Amino acid sequence: MRSDRAGSRPNCSFGKARTGHRLGIPVLTTEGRVRLVDGILATAVLLGIALDALLGWWWADPVAGLVIVAYAVREAVHIFRE
Description:
Elements: H1 4-23, H2 26-55, H3 60-81
Helix pairs in contact: 1-2, 2-3
């Protein structure tokens, strides 16, 4: 896993989604959302590993995974309703 994904993905994804929305290109808007979920996933994995290593919170990574799944499902429902 590359740690640069956590920092760069959200900025790029918001830009893609905004540009796609302004230009009326749904594929670009959706790509921006997918990249945002990817960035959130990378951040959550890194945070879960760090909390486990530093504080012994073994449950942090699975909880982050559940939050990501909830967000991804919400985005998928939103995409299919458009």
